[in-house]
């Protein structure tokens, strides 16, 4: 690798490109400059040391959370931790596009590779960058089952999940769970300011300041005034009518609202009227068509897996400021409409699915505080912003209508449009779009619910605006008909096919009136077995998250009605944050506490051909019990004891132990 190539690789990172393993490799050689280690890295490193070098693990699966501001280098911190521990533990990166079962299987194989004793293996550090909470929880669940199946000692640390998540308030996340979390913000500590100052001097000897602008912005703690002045300076003499400026508007719109969005170079070439190119050398031809302003704010990316070349704005906050300044001549609604109406971009085949997914997200994805967003929104942030512009609601309706057609009649866009219309009391139009969405997705719960909401809101509106307390028969029929249609839609929503929620009476346990009636006893036990089998068949078709068992009551040592105690009677035997307490419940630590041992009664039972049973009230009767974790059942037929919990899915065995 020659000097020019090394120079280019280093410059790409400091001008806004993503960190890669090549950067770490070259920095270790050293072929390029050392990468700054922020305070968050040192904090995460200490957490890792405490977990890995502890004599006996508290849990088999541990977590470290890295919450970070957009563009603050959170992913870099997580990757640095992975790189620094690569020789001490086994490391891997998890991609959410992979099935959880596959990821779990690979993680277990990685842990046991070339090992003889599964209780003396190096732990596996798994990086989950920007994976959603459901995916992370389901992966933890599958890994827990794998550990239980292999009968690995609970005092052995098997997996560490390094969870890197975007957040608009990382410091609050740190306060919620200080023992497992690090926060990466735009603000620099005094020690970090010294490091950035020294690094800045080194970089300015190699590069012009405008070519390491992301590093310069970080050194300024991404100060809003600095960003505003930077954008004003860059676009001072920009031609607002040029195709390049139009392209910058599109990229800024996507980057402002959709995290990690981009536009492929192929799309850019089509937009600018440049011929199609297929090798890396032609990227320079594309760059030559860019204005000086575009070269300063756009960064070129190349996906290592797909080899797709793309561009984005150097930082999300810069994208937001560009959108603000460039929308002074064209509003965000106009920019979005221009994008959705551009048939060249919409119909371009290369990387089309990804491009359309970004456009779809612009209209459908709502902000959620639970996902790390600053506030909850009723509609997508773009639609909410457009609604505040002049003639905003109609402009938002026109925008979603255009997107509906551009995306090939997308049902969920039609559903969101119906929601927007009924929120603004335009019920007839809302009904039209809700029916359109239903025709495209006739069995979707959310679509059917939206149809019901249209009728419901319309019914309430009719009642509230009714001037005459004694309406005419025709008007009464119209109001009642609207209510009945709403009820019908809601019922259809509840009864949709393949619904994952299991009926509350999946497993009913009753009492025989006559203890001596053996025939009734056989019928009852047969019914219980049938219900259990039916539930288990349903459970196999459900996602891991939906199939989890939640116990609301437990069998206690007391007598009479006091024998059944609510989950709250156990109290909260653990200290710490809610997340830490949740992990201790999931890890089974609750069953080892003295409080639980004194309160709950252990029940005798036995395993038979992979099933768990306990004695019924009748002679020779047996009741099948659902294990909390199927993997916790012993391999052979054994006598066991367990705590008995009661869920909506039936009786559940917790903390199963083989009798000595």
TrEMBL record:
One of its GO terms (cellular component) is cytoplasm. It comes from the Eukaryota. PANTHER family: DED DOMAIN-CONTAINING PROTEIN, STERILE ALPHA MOTIF DOMAIN-CONTAINING PROTEIN 9-LIKE. This is Uncharacterized protein. It comes from Muraenolepis orangiensis.
């Amino acid at each position: 690798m020659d000097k020019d190539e090394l120079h280019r690789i280093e410059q790409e990172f400091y001008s806004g490109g993503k960190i890669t393993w090549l950067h770490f490799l070259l920095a270790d050689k050293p072929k390029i400059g050392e990468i700054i280690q922020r305070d968050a890295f040192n904090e995460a490193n200490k957490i890792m040391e405490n977990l890995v070098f502890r004599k006996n693990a508290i849990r088999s699966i541990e977590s470290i959370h890295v919450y970070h501001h957009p563009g603050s280098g959170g992913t870099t911190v997580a990757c640095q931790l992975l790189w620094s521990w690569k020789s001490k533990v086994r490391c891997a990166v998890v991609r959410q596009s992979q099935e959880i079962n596959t990821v779990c299987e690979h993680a277990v194989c990685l842990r046991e590779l070339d090992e003889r004793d599964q209780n003396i293996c190096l732990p596996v550090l798994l990086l989950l960058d920007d994976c959603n909470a459901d995916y992370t929880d389901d992966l933890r669940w599958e890994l827990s089952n794998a550990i239980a199946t292999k009968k690995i000692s609970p005092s052995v640390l098997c997996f560490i999940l390094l969870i890197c998540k975007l957040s608009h308030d990382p410091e609050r996340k740190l306060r919620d769970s200080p023992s497992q979390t690090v926060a990466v913000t735009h603000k620099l500590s005094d020690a970090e300011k010294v490091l950035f100052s020294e690094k800045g001097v080194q970089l300015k000897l190699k590069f012009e300041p405008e070519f390491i602008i992301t590093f310069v912005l970080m050194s300024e703690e991404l100060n809003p005034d600095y960003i505003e002045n930077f954008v004003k300076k860059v676009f001072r003499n920009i031609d607002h009518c040029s195709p390049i400026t139009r392209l910058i508007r599109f990229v800024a719109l996507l980057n402002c609202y959709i995290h990690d969005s981009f536009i492929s170079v192929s799309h850019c070439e089509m937009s600018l009227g440049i011929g199609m190119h297929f090798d890396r050398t032609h990227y320079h031809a594309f760059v030559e068509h860019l204005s000086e302003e575009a070269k300063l704010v756009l960064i070129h990316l190349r996906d290592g897996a797909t080899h797709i070349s793309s561009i984005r704005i150097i930082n999300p906050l810069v994208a937001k400021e560009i959108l603000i300044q460039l929308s002074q001549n064209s509003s965000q609604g106009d920019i979005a409409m221009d994008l959705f109406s551009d048939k060249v971009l919409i119909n371009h085949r290369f990387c089309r699915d990804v491009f359309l997914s970004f456009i779809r997200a612009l209209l459908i994805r709502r902000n959620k505080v639970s996902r790390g967003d600053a506030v909850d929104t009723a509609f997508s942030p773009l639609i909410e912003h457009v609604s505040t512009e002049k003639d905003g609601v109609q402009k938002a309706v026109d925008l979603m209508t255009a997107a509906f057609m551009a995306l090939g009649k997308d049902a969920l866009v039609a559903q969101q449009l119906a929601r927007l219309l009924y929120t603004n009391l335009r019920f007839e139009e809302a009904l039209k779009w809700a029916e359109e969405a239903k025709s495209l997705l006739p069995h979707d719960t959310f679509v059917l619910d939206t149809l019901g909401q249209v009728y419901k809101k319309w019914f309430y509106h009719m009642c509230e605006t009714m001037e005459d307390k004694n309406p005419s028969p025709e008007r009464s029929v119209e109001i009642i008909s609207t209510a009945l249609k709403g009820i019908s839609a809601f019922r259809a929503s509840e009864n949709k096919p393949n619904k994952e929620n299991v009926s509350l009476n999946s497993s009913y346990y009753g009492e025989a009136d006559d203890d001596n009636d053996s025939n009734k006893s056989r019928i009852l036990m047969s019914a219980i077995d049938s219900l259990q089998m039916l539930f288990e068949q349903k459970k196999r078709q459900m996602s891991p998250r939906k199939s989890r068992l939640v116990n609301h009551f437990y069998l206690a040592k007391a007598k009479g009605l006091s024998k059944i105690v609510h989950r709250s009677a156990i109290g909260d035997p653990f200290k710490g944050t809610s997340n830490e307490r949740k992990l201790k419940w999931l890890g089974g630590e609750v069953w080892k506490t003295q409080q639980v041992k004194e309160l709950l009664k252990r029940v005798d039972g036995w395993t038979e051909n992979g099933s768990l049973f306990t004695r019924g009230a009748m002679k020779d009767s047996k009741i099948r019990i659902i294990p909390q974790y199927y993997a916790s059942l012993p391999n052979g037929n054994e006598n066991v004891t367990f705590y008995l919990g009661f869920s909506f899915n039936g009786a559940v065995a917790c903390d199963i132990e083989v009798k000595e």
